[in-house]
Amino acid sequence: MSTEFSVIIGRLVSAFTLNCELFCLTLLFALPLGLVIAFGSMSRFAPLRAAVKTFVWVIRGTPLMLQVIVIFLGPGLLGFQSPWPSNSSGRMMAAVAAFVINYACYFSEIYRGGIEAVPKGQTEAGQVLGMTRSQIFFKVTLLQVIKRILPPMGNEIITLVKDTSLANVISNKEIIMMAKEYSAKGLIWPLFSTAIFFLIFVGALTLLFGWLEKRLDYFR
Amino acid sequence: MALLEVSGISKRFDSTEVLKDISLELEKGEAIAIIGSSGSGKTTLLRCLNFLETADTGCIKVGGETLWDAKLPHTQSESEIRKKRLHFGLVFQNFNLFPQYTALQNVMLAGELLAKEQPGYKANKKRIHAELEQQARDLLAQMGLSDRADHYPHQLSGGQQQRVAIARALALHPDILCFDEPTSALDPELTGEVLRVLRELAANNTTMIIVTHEMSFARDVADRILFMDGGVVVEQGPAKEVIDHPKEERTRQFLAHYGN
Ligand SMILES: Nc1ncnc2c1ncn2[C@@H]1O[C@H](COP(=O)(O)OP(=O)(O)OP(=O)(O)O)[C@@H](O)[C@H]1O
Ligand SMILES: [Mg+2]
Questions:
Q1: Within a domain: residue A104?
Q2: Is A199 part of any domain?
Q3: pLDDT at residue number B159
Q4: CA-based, 20 to 30 A from B242: which of A22, A30, B73, B92?
């Protein structure tokens, strides 16, 4: 029994690395891509703004699970050569792509809210002092934006931790899928134990964001 | 020749004509006050002078050099305007200090960024920084804020914040310093400390344009007063004359609200 216990825990841990990998890759690409989308949605060029806003609306308005399936199967169903290799890493790549697009759209809205919440007077004060647009962005606006977006970002990133298990709809063997194999055999505790993995991860992130928010507490 | 020559400035927002053919001149060392009721275009005029708003017509010259002309598109590119901005300084009604920087850093920031663009900055980094810091500390001392240099804006009173903002504008040595109702956002007991600073600046012959609702201050401190109404300069003249013996009926009506 005890050897079986440690074997099962070991397999859950290794399955959870897939969740962690998906989490990290999503953040790596979605954080910068979200900023690009945010600038697009604030563009002075109306057609671009409309296109970006429509795209964001579609992505935010449909389930992530569906997007994962569409990105994985869509190209093949439309008669194209599937861009995803037909092995486990191909399924992972498709999941990463879907997650990046989905989360970049959510992040873009958070960025946009944060940027628009900085009073116009801040930019104007910078302009009057002869600063360039980029100096104003990096030296004046950015830190104020970061301070404002930290709480909603924290929420979104915590949601991402839990969403990673959606990757199993295209048979990525993440932790919940692994645990379900045991419950199908009549062993139920592994499934419940997955909660602990998520709780520890989310707990660590909560501490991290609390610390970051404290670091920026010195100004209002 | 006047230091500042503004001629024929007009500005409309959609259907409302906010400034109608405004012209004014300002001598070096002169302080003028602009008075007028709400919505008469005072802020818009200052914003046009500081290129935060683009006038529809007109021309702005400083020291004989045309900084901006509605008829000359090449004077209106962003990079051109950025260089020319520095002839003017602007102090806002609500300060607009940068919240993440201390008072000292607020005063130094723009100067440091400009210094970094100069050739030879890298080699003289330490010395340039020390000079900028010394200048900033001197300015804060002049504002009576030596002991507040390391405070963040939210730790300062409104009057103190506004004085930091004045130091920040002075740090770039503008030819003409503009104030848009510098005391309007302050509690009455705090206006005095800011007005005192403005008096000192005027006594030191700082060239200034002050939009204000403080009539007795304008009368005492300004060399000249412009009264604006409905986007035009209705009357202008020596400060005491305009306040004590207004020529125009509209000026009289306006001043009547202030107990003159
Ligand atoms: N960005 C803008 N868009 C549209 N209308 C504007 C804009 N800025 C100012 N106005 C209008 O222009 C007119 C003049 O405004 P301005 O702020 O210059 O007046 P003011 O003399 O500074 O008034 P106050 O004493 O209240 O500050 C007002 O009617 C105002 O509503
Ligand atoms: Mg105004």
A1: yes
A2: no
A3: 94
A4: B92
Q: Which atom of ligand 1 is nearest to the CA of B44?
A: 18
List the residue whose alpha carbon is closest to atom 10 of ligand 1.
B13
Sign of CA dihedral A152, A153, A157, A163: positive
User: Which runs of E-coded beta strand occur in chain B?
Assistant: 4-13, 16-26, 31-36, 57-62, 65-69, 88-91, 176-180, 208-211, 224-229, 232-238
Residue A108 falls inside a structural domain: yes
Q: Structural domain of residue B46, as residue ranges?
A: 4-258
Q: What is the ipTM of this complex?
A: 0.92
Structure tokens at B69: 């002309």
Amino acid at residue number B135: Q
Taking the CA atoms of residue B60, residue B197, residue B257 and residue B34 in that order, the dihedral angle to the nearest 10 degrees is: -10
Q: If you measure from the C-alpha of residue B36 to the centroid of ligand 1, how many angstroms do you get, rounded to a whole number?
A: 12
Average pLDDT over every residue of A139-155: 95
Mapped onto helix, strand or coil, the DSSP state of residue A145 is helix
Which amino acid residue places its CA nearest to atom 8 of ligand 1? B44
The owner of tokens 């002050």 is B210
- The verdict on the CB of residue B212 being under 6 Å from ligand 1 is no
| Banded model confidence at residue B260, pLDDT cuts 50, 70, 90 | low
What 3-state DSSP class applies to B251?
A: helix
Q: How far is CA B55 from CA A131, A194, B35, B66, in A?
A: 21, 64, 20, 14
Q: What is the CATH number of the domain that holds A163?
A: 1.10.3720.10
- Option in A128, A131, A219 nearest B99 (CB): A219
A143 is a domain residue: yes
How far A48 CA lies from chain B's nearest CA (Å)? 23
Task: Please check whether residue A172 is in contact with residue A99, taking contact to mean a CB–CB distance below 8 angstroms.
Answer: no
Percent of chain A at pLDDT above 70?
99
Distance, in Å, from the CA atom of B23 to the CA atom of B38, rounded to the nearest integer, reads: 20
The structure tokens listed for B7 are: 């001629």
CA angle B137, B140, B142 (to 5 degrees): 110
Whether B93 has its CB under 8 Å from any CB of chain A: the answer is no
Q: Helix, strand, or coil here: B224?
A: strand
CB contact under 8 A, B85 and A127: yes
**Domain assignment of residue A24, given as a range:** 19-170
Which H/E stretch holds residue A217?
A: none
φ/ψ of B30, rounded to 5, equals -90, 145
